[in-house]
Amino acid sequence: MKYTKKQGQYLSFIYYYRKLNNESPAHSDFQKYFVTNPANVNDMLKTLEIKGFIKREAGKARSIELLLKRKELPDLQ
């Protein structure tokens, strides 16, 4: 399983956000943390889903499911 450094950071963010908040992050949470725009967040989440790192339910908010274990993730920076 290979992911880029930025993809790894998104995956770690999902892991820790869920751990702290008991729900998946919303697009706006990614935008605030990574200081980016909605299009970039959407593109990244699509890429992570295509690569099989996450699963989402279409039309359902906060439905991101991480398909990797903690030991497979980098530390969040």
TrEMBL record:
Alphabetical list of InterPro entries matching this protein: HTH_MarR-typ, WH-like_DNA-bd_sf, WH_DNA-bd_sf
Gene3D superfamilies: Winged helix-like DNA-binding domain superfamily/Winged helix DNA-binding domain
Record domain HTH marR-type: where: 7-58
Entry-linked Pfam families: MarR
UniProt protein name: MarR family transcriptional regulator
